[in-house]
Design a protein that fits this description.
2 copies of one chain form a homodimer.
Chain A: H1 9-23, H2 30-37, H3 41-48, H4 51-74, H5 81-97, H6 106-112, H7 119-142, H8 147-169, H9 174-193
The structure holds a DNA duplex (30 and 30 nucleotides).
Chain lengths: ~190, ~190
DNA sequence: CACATCTTGAACTGATCAGTTCAGAATAGA
DNA sequence: TCTATTCTGAACTGATCAGTTCAAGATGTG
């Protein structure tokens, strides 16, 4: 069982991310991480760093992975802004519908715990939410909204996207989640018609 | 220091509620509660029960207190539905703006932690969110929306209300929070115009 | 075979946690 | 004054936590 790397770093990081995602930072112990990754306590410590460092890596992995998907969804915003925003929300809805993945959202969960988290972790979470808003704003401006409209709808859409995390954890049905984003998409259609 | 009750139960419960609200269940220790309430460890145990019981009481106190305010805000829905929903969100926005109170929302925070909470606590949180939706739905129907529209807008508004908890924790400005609810209020105006 | 590399399990430290108990101090009312 | 009630501080249990260390075992490479 030695001589060469026995585990895939990315797989382990993935498992750790999902563990943090489901239970949150406070309720995830090193033993939980050890169980989730299949790695020994010592191995985690020596190759992934301590709990804080590992959590930061997981946050970044999460932001990068889904950030790409959100970007891809919004890429058609210039020609079809409504479809783009719908696709944006679909990224989240599909993630929630995936039985392999936890409900909720790692960023939202982390944001809610900001008062008890380290400043660096808090900063990463805030930054991730900021990126989301900027992504949406750029797309909406490309889609033809004014600066003001784009700003307002971007922060609204980012918030609604986070709300899906709360509502899914509280047991909302897929139909209800769809209704939540439906109102927002309709509001965008309306804004574009003006 | 004895012979008669030395502390006001409601005051103590209030302090405990705020402590849970700010730091969440997992990150609140009995020592934190002792400090917050000014009560001895033993006194908490003997007069407020164990951590789980106390948390349930705090959840109920929170739901009752703000439930009343939400109801009052929505009471004019039949004649002025848009103003009613705006007043509904104002309850949350004023709570967030109050420097005496934590950001966020106890219900939202609890909902996010459902996977690691006891079933009874999870049930209380879900119930509270369910009430919020029913409150909104009744108001919107009274305001003249169809059943379908009222259902969709109610779950949307309840979600947006929860999103304010996430966004305020992530450092969103009052103007941004206002923009978030603005889009929803506009969507309601539009629905009523049809 | 020998060595460098990797992995493991176990242990230990110092800290915190919830829950519980209890003796004693303080006090209000009879 | 006597007594029932209330409060307090301290202690203890059994558990978990993060962080760290290390010796022993396993394996691939040269």
């Amino acid at each position: 069982m030695a001589g060469k790397k026995q585990f895939d770093m990315d797989t382990a990081l993935d498992a750790a991310m999902i563990q943090f995602w489901r239970d949150g930072y406070a309720d995830t112990s090193l033993d939980d991480l050890s169980r989730a990754t299949g790695l020994n306590r010592s191995s985690i410590y020596s190759s992934l760093g301590d709990k804080d460092t590992l959590f930061l890596r997981c946050l970044d992995l999460y932001a990068a992975r889904y950030g790409e998907k959100y970007d891809a969804a919004l890429s058609c915003a210039a020609s079809e802004p409504v479809a783009a925003v719908r696709a944006f929300f679909d990224v989240t809805l599909e993630r929630i519908a995936d039985p392999e993945l936890p409900d909720g959202c790692l960023i939202a969960q982390t944001a809610m715990a900001i008062p008890v988290l380290s400043p660096s972790v808090a900063a990463h979470a805030k930054q991730a939410l900021g990126f989301q808003r900027l992504r949406l704003r750029a797309a909406l401006k490309a889609g033809g909204l004014t600066d003001q409209e784009a700003e307002a709808l971007a922060v609204h859409a980012a918030a609604v996207n986070q709300s899906l995390a709360v509502m899914s954890r509280a047991g909302a049905s897929p139909a209800q989640l769809l209704a939540i984003v439906g109102v927002t998409v309709d509001a965008l259609s309306q804004a574009l018609r003006a």
